[in-house]
Specification:
8-stranded parallel β-barrel, 7 helices, 35 strands, binds (2S,3S,4S,5R)-3,4,5-trihydroxy-6-oxo-oxane-2-carboxylic acid
Length: 617
């Protein structure tokens, strides 16, 4: 231990460490340029009423970003933000104006704001998400473009920001694209707009851009990670503190403003105490005890505080181990759809309602389908003790051979991981959902799997597969070579809805090749809340209930089963579901209706999870 210098500081032991090479949980520095932990920064919200011009032919490309006004009565200016109606931000435009429900195309947003810059600071504008493409302009200058409807992005505005009145203009275009991620067809509403918070972020000239503080894979006391600065560094100490656990650790950044570290939290916290008294100074995070610690990272004149949980997640044969013990994932899939009012969910209250239902079902796991959900949901899952599957929208068929499409998917993957890599709740990164088995898709997805592993070697990589072979009468096996490179295999199967009858589940046997955990990531069927009838009558609550009963009994018999996340928590809008009087543009497979009413299948699942919780303890 010659490279360690152990110092006593107040009652704490401080380890000072410089220049050693360590195993870190990720490739570094993180290639994403996102500023981590916006809730923990000095910010000004730009949410509220923005003026909006609906521009179906994209005429505004000729200059709407200038926010021009006629100079005199002879001047011709054929648009006016001032005279245009407002749209709320955050929010999709579809549910704010009836005439925009089916709209796909560009909308120009404008927000005026007053701001006085403080000396020595740098400013950024941060968007939680805008679907699907966004071009951003401040005071007539272009800041940049962003593609992808569910990932955050930020631009520095230090030099564009005026010291008084400012005009921020954003063109948001939700038109579907053949080269997009997702592509042309998907089973959810293509809500357009600035769908998450917009924030001005103030940071010092040199600031902590991102950091990673998590347990090293497989260890319950070794913390490994990094801190990345933006701006000139003067090689001052970087400190990582976990005050409640009496941990303080110091290291130095390199010339690129990057400091990686690994330290033994027990050794620091225990100091000279006998080992028997301090074998586990960190209480591990788990669904039963979602302990979060305040972690303070400081250095180079900046300081950020976060709430971080510590846990391990591994695969051992066909088991998923949380903190070294096998866990059965009692889950549900959900969309980021607002309860009661419909539209995109974005607020802390939306998250509270949705995840409240998830807890009421008896879940310890939730699958955030089919794209990265807003940060409120992920942070609440951290606090509530819900394990999370997080996914990028590589969905059904996309342009597999197009390098720009791959680059786009990679950047969505990077930004998903960058925003949430300090959240203990997130245990699974999913690279795709129900993609067709063909060679070019395998090349594409293998690349994403490899990249996810390089970015985060501590979590598990998965994907929802749906290609199944009938290997003998009433025997099915997953037939997708992508399974070979995943840590955990997801299976979407719709026996009793898209094929066969619910009771066929009694006879069906499943075979798994190889020892890998399996999550049945979807099954389900549609029902209208309040429609009652025989168990074999489609769209009744009884049909859905019977389907759940048969499915759950079958799923329990599946080899390698490590978890379930049926489809889906709540009915949601979808352009693919038109049947009048039944669907009316809603996917009705929710166990809860879009008005918050619980269907019979909700209770079937709740009962199953109560039994599972008892048996697996
Ligand atoms: C699926 C998809 C999901 C759909 C669901 C359905 O397999 O993954 O996005 O909404 O089926 O309802 O058909």
């Amino acid at each position: 231990m010659s490279s360690f210098e152990v110092l006593m500081k107040r009652c704490w032991f401080v380890l000072l460490l410089a220049g050693s090479a360590f195993a870190v949980p990720s490739r570094s520095p993180s290639p994403s340029n996102l500023i981590a932990n916006i809730p923990g920064r000095t910010t000004v919200s730009l949410n509220g009423a923005w003026r909006a011009i609906v521009d179906p032919f994209e005429n505004g490309k000729n200059g709407f970003f200038r926010d021009a006004k006629p100079n005199d009565k002879r001047d011709l200016v054929e648009y006016s933000f001032d005279a245009s109606p407002v749209l709320n931000v955050p929010g999709d435009w579809n549910t704010q104006r009836a005439d925009l429900m089916f709209y796909e195309g560009p909308v120009w947003y404008r927000r005026e704001f007053e701001f006085h810059k403080r000396p020595g600071t740098r400013m950024f504008v941060y968007f939680g998400a805008a679907n699907y493409r966004a071009s951003v302009y401040l005071n007539g200058e272009k800041l940049g473009d962003h593609e992808g409807g569910f990932t955050a992005f930020n631009f520095e505005v230090t030099s564009q920001l005026h010291d008084s009145s400012n005009v921020l203009v954003v063109e948001v275009n939700n038109v579907r694209r053949t080269d997009g991620v997702p592509g042309m067809k998907f089973d959810w509403w293509n809500y357009g707009g600035i769908t998450r918070d917009v924030t001005l972020v103030e940071v010092p000239a040199t600031f902590i851009q991102d950091y990673w503080v998590q347990l090293e894979k497989g260890s319950t006391h070794q913390i490994a990670g990094w801190v990345r600065f933006n701006g000139p560094v003067s090689h001052h100490e970087v400190t990582i503190q976990i005050p409640e656990a009496s941990v303080e650790y110091k290291t130095l950044p390199d010339e690129n403003g990057y400091a990686k570290f690994t330290f033994d939290a027990s050794a620091i916290a225990c100091g000279k105490k006998p080992a028997s008294q301090c074998s586990a100074p960190l209480k591990l995070w788990s669904p039963e005890s979602p302990k979060l610690y305040r972690v303070v990272i400081s250095g180079e004149g900046d300081s950020v505080s976060d709430e971080i949980g510590f846990r391990t997640i591994e695969v051992h044969g066909a088991k998923i181990l949380l903190n070294g013990k096998p866990i059965f994932l009692r889950g549900i899939s959900m969309h980021e759809e607002a309860p009661f009012r419909e539209g995109r969910a974005f607020s802390a209250e939306d998250a509270q309602t949705l995840l409240g239902w998830v807890k009421e079902l008896g879940c310890n796991f939730v699958r955030f389908a089919h794209y990265p959900h807003n940060e409120n949901e992920v942070r609440l899952a951290d606090r509530m003790g819900l394990l999370v599957w997080s996914e990028i929208p590589v969905y059904w068929d996309i342009d597999w051979t197009n390098p720009a499409t791959l680059e786009n998917a990679e950047s969505q993957l990077r930004d998903m991981i960058a925003r949430d890599h300090n959240r203990a709740a997130v245990i699974l990164w999913s690279v795709a959902n129900e993609t067709p088995v063909k060679p070019e898709r395998l090349v594409f997805l293998k690349q994403l799997v490899q990249e996810a592993r390089e970015l985060d070697s501590t979590r598990l990589i998965t994907s929802a597969l749906n290609h199944v072979d009938e290997t003998a009468p009433d025997v099915r096996a997953i037939a997708d070579p992508l399974g070979d490179v995943l840590d955990v295999v997801g299976l979407n199967e719709y026996l009793g809805w898209y094929w066969g009858r619910p009771e066929d589940a009694e006879r069906l046997q499943w075979k798994m090749s190889g020892e890998k955990p399996l999550i049945v990531s979807e099954f389900g069927g549609g029902a209208i809340f309040g429609r009652h009838g025989a168990a074999d009558e489609r769209w009744t609550e009884e049909y859905q209930e019977s389907l759940f009963e048969h499915q759950l009994a079958m799923v329990e018999r599946m080899p390698n089963l490590a978890g379930v996340s049926p489809w889906v928590l709540m009915d949601f809008r979808s352009p693919l579901r038109m049947l009048p009087g039944v669907q009316d543009y809603h996917n009705r497979k929710g166990v809860i209706s879009n008005r918050g009413q619980k269907k019979l299948a909700f209770y079937t699942l709740q009962k199953f999870y109560a039994k599972q919780a008892k048996e697996n303890h």
